[in-house]
# Entry
Amino acid sequence: MYGMVNKAIQDLVISNFGEEKWIAIKEKAGVEEDIFLSNESYPDAMTYDLVGAASEVLGVAARDVLVAFGEHWILVTAKQGYGSMLEANGRTLSEFLINLPSFHARVAMIFPNLQPPRFSCTDVTENSLVLHYYSHRPGLTDFVVGLLQGLGKMFNSPADVEILQRKAEGSDHDTFLVRWTHADPA
# Structure
């Protein structure tokens, strides 16, 4: 994964728990890097180790770490790094999710070695859709839940996310039912 992912985990931990907890997490994960270069590629195992160590050091379930990280990724990291791309991808939560394939295609042009996940939407209604998530990386289902909740907040359309199917349970992808309420008119 690119360094920006590990930097975002670092930012999430430091902003919520302080520098000392981050140092303890890095130590527990066996990570020696003092800084992560955003455009540098790092082993996926390093990111997984950081999440596992965060769970242990903070005394929080790994699922909760991943959900919080997903929300943080949308509300802080992505807004700072891709603000204009996020805005151009849709004006509503539904529109944004339907346009995810084109969003990842644009991001892949910036990061040539990126192996982005694939998303598709089915069963689209006024207040819900089914999101299909395909990735070669295991164990990120709860991160996607956090991403979806963060997007709901970003669009002022609180999202309720139900995992319908997990890749880990024998399917070739994860499936989520995403329900939202519309933003109050301004």
